[in-house]
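Table S2 (continued). Query chain:
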Amino acid sequence: KEIDPKLKFSVLTVKAGPNFVDALKFLCSVPWQAVLIARSKVLVLDGQSPILAAFPKVRRPWSVQIWHGSGSFKKFGYDASNFSGGRSSELLDLMNFQSGYDLVICSSKNALQHFSSAFRVAEDRIEVFPLPHFDDFFEAGPELESDAPPGGLSRKLKILWVPTNVKLFPGKDQGSRLADFASQHGFAFSEVARITSRSHPGSAYLFKKVASADIVVTDQSSIIFEAAYAKKNVFILNPFNSIDDLVEHSYLNRLELEG
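Corresponding output:
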């Protein structure tokens, strides 16, 4: 609107949720979302869109994909197909979920190869932009009290536990063990137990949770990038049985993990 007040801007905010009510809301919104997409010249996506996938390529608006634009620790898209809990590559091909984008955004030239593979787009369709700013969300972060006693803090340090998806790693129970550790050592502890549309990396809700934490712990969540921007201490708990399994499921190599 700053460029041209005549430009119309719409937001598709309804996503398929994990429960029946959210799924019903999504189904009811499909015709409305399809009409908006059909009328649009440009579509900016932050994730998969089954509605866009249903459009013939000749009728699609010019599409920009910013999913994981700030960075991705775990493999995603086609790179994660056929993993436990992920979609099969055959389904991705059939539904055209992760391909056909006109432009893909990422934050580093070092990620070009990975994003090209994850979205199956040529590298010349991937644009590297500077890291995004989250200043407005992080201004509310915790500050040490000025009258803190020498040699210590006047409040408990806060640990935030953000697992990617607890259903993918049954039996690990890392959250409970981390909560016990926090209690034994005098830390405050909070948890975002599931990555949903409300608590997904990129959401204001999760930004504010990160802003109020001192330490962010995760298994594979890309929240590590937002936490790093906020200058938080970040720890990673391996959700797999070995370093080899973690290397297979992530974009890090063994030297980076061990060094």
